[in-house]
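Input record (one chain):
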Amino acid sequence: MGSLQPVLPPISIKAEPILTIPTPLGDFNFTNSMLFTILVIIAVTLFFRFALRRMALVPSGVQNVAETVVEYLLGLVEGSAGRRVGRRIFPLIATLFIFIIVANWSGLLPGVGTIGGCYTKTETAAAASAEPTATPASGGLQKYQCPGPDQEFVPFLRPANADLNTTLAMALIAVTVVQVAGISAHGVRGYLKELTTPLLLAPIHITGELARIISLSFRLFGNIFGGEVLVTVMFVLLGSLFLGFGTIIFLGLELLFGFIQALLFAILTLVYITTAMAGHGGGGGHDGGGHEAPAGTVEAMGEHTASAIGGIGGSDDAGGDHPEGGGTIHHMGG
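The corresponding structure, as predicted from the sequence alone:
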């Protein structure tokens, strides 16, 4: 039997498989980030199911929380894209924001990335061969010991957005919807005309569309994975002396960054869709219908956020377009 080798919870840039599922096409590796993603989806679904099961005219408790989130996001979307377009793309923007922020914040819960099992290094997807033993470490974290040198500690849960596959999948969905929105608004010929005008800049326009996939996915992945590494390193360095103080500071920062990254991903997706539907001429992003949230409401806060970020008005004038607003959004999206 090999000597016990203490190691800290691993920092891996890729998600680790925790289960191998045989399929006709080959073995399917079920990773710890997949498990975490499924748990987040179930948690969000159950929360809104519970919050809206007995809706009251005067909301309270969890219904009030759910309606506050929805009203803020609705004001944000309508303040940028207008009432008609905003209502159509609201489900996508709200889903992206809620999933990302819940995944980011729940990734900071105790046990995520620290509870796991020992797997052989050559066959990490096999069943855990032994339970790791934990001993206190000088830095505040625990050291995990596996029975043999050919084994490594693998956590059962990994933050969803610390896996590039998750962020890349969301970026592909967002950019695909952008293209569909452009074709829906202008038709195939109009969309191709927008993409190839002027003709010499067509490769740059196409490259810019593809670059959005890289921008959205790597920005979110880099910030969440980097934050995870930062918290781990700071706990090791400061845990023995300033465990409580260090925990509050760095976990507080990660809560803030998690919110910012969720809002940024949703806002950029919203801007890209609005830009695609407006076209290079601008002005198509807003429509008639006259909707203005009452001052002081959560929905008005969302419209104010859209105005501050996009440089546009928070409401639509009935029967009129906003060429200045459309141009500003196009400038941001480009």
